[in-house]
TrEMBL record:
Topology versus the membrane: Multi-pass membrane protein
GO cellular component: plasma membrane
Lineage, opening ranks: Bacteria, Pseudomonadati, Pseudomonadota, Alphaproteobacteria, Rhodobacterales
Location(s), subcellular: Cell membrane; Membrane
Designated name of the protein: Probable membrane transporter protein
Pfam families listed in its UniProt record: TauE (PF01925)
Species of origin: Cereibacter sphaeroides (strain ATCC 17023 / DSM 158 / JCM 6121 / CCUG 31486 / LMG 2827 / NBRC 12203 / NCIMB 8253 / ATH 2.4.1.)
Family designation: Belongs to the 4-toluene sulfonate uptake permease (TSUP) (TC 2.A.102) family.
Keywords tagged on the record: Cell membrane, Membrane, Transmembrane, Transmembrane helix
Length: 277
């Protein structure tokens, strides 16, 4: 692998610190893990370091999940203090989410990069469309029976493990489709991040364990160096996102997040069309 210049190394460190700051802020603001920011940034960093897309993408996803662990804990605690987390729903979702995450993590060891990117684009486009059309879509005005809720939990875990996100975006979509107010959905989604990130991180470590083409600092598909460079700024900004989430209007939050998701989708679509991973 080619040695990087000191300027390039500094730029990489700065990019990771910035990604951590935005990841933490989004975790608090939208109740999401921030993987929509960290996955593409980590992917580009690992590509620049000389890793093939077949390694760079699962490594980006696994490392993103590791970063989501502390940010989701801080975010969930902040929302819990404001009394807007649905703890009963989190109890129902705990086991199904774990099963979904385990399946998604197992797929990480055999799936091509285009699967990760394709899942990301499809789900994010659906969420963005809902947000930008005013969020008026409804399946019902209340949560469904427990059997359906458990199925939802498994889907949230599976999709989130493949996308490298904390599940907040997907669970937000599900909850608002069933009439849950946006601020309660955001707060509960922060708790979902905790349920997904911990087993997801462990699963990606196991999926990549022993591979010879990983960087020397990696534990399976988790880069320890990237994790350590990203965490300080992400922890710092999470609490600011939580505070802002309870001050801004739901319309502003929804439309801003929708625009952000469209930009991320565009980035992955360009990469897929160009065959660049």
């Amino acid at each position: 692998m080619e040695l990087l210049s000191s300027g390039t190394i500094f730029a990489l460190i700065a990019a990771l610190a910035a990604a951590g700051a935005v990841t933490g802020f989004l975790a608090g603001l939208f109740g999401i893990g921030g993987g929509a920011i960290s996955v593409p940034v980590f992917f580009e960093v690992f590509r620049l370091l000389g890793h093939d897309p077949e390694v760079a993408m699962p490594l980006a996803v696994g490392t993103s999940l590791a970063v989501i662990v502390p940010t989701s804990l801080v975010s969930a605690y902040g929302h819990l203090q404001r009394g807007t987390v649905d703890k009963d729903l989190l109890k129902v979702w705990a086991l199904p989410i774990l099963i979904g995450v385990a399946l998604g993590s197992a797929l990480a060891s055999v799936a091509p990069p285009r699967l990760f990117q394709g899942v990301f684009v499809c789900v994010a486009l659906l969420i963005a469309t809902k947000l930008l059309t005013g969020g008026k879509w409804r399946l019902s005005e209340g949560l469904p029976r427990r059997a359906i809720l458990r199925l939802y939990g498994a889907v949230v875990g599976l999709v989130s493990a493949l996308m490298g996100i904390g599940g907040g975006a997907v669970s937000n979509l599900i909850l608002t489709l069933h009439g849950v107010p946006i601020h309660r959905a955001v707060s509960t989604a922060a708790g979902v991040g905790v349920l997904i990130a911990v087993p997801g991180t462990i699963g990606y470590m196991i999926a990549g364990w022993g591979r010879p083409d990983l960087p020397p600092d990696a534990l399976g598909f988790v880069s320890v160096a990237t994790f350590l460079l990203t965490i300080p700024t992400s922890i710092l900004t999470t609490r600011f996102g939580v505070a802002l989430a309870h001050r801004l209007s739901k319309e502003w939050l929804a439309r801003s997040f929708g625009c952000f998701l469209l930009l991320v989708c565009a980035r992955f679509l360009v990469a897929m069309i160009a065959g660049d991973g």
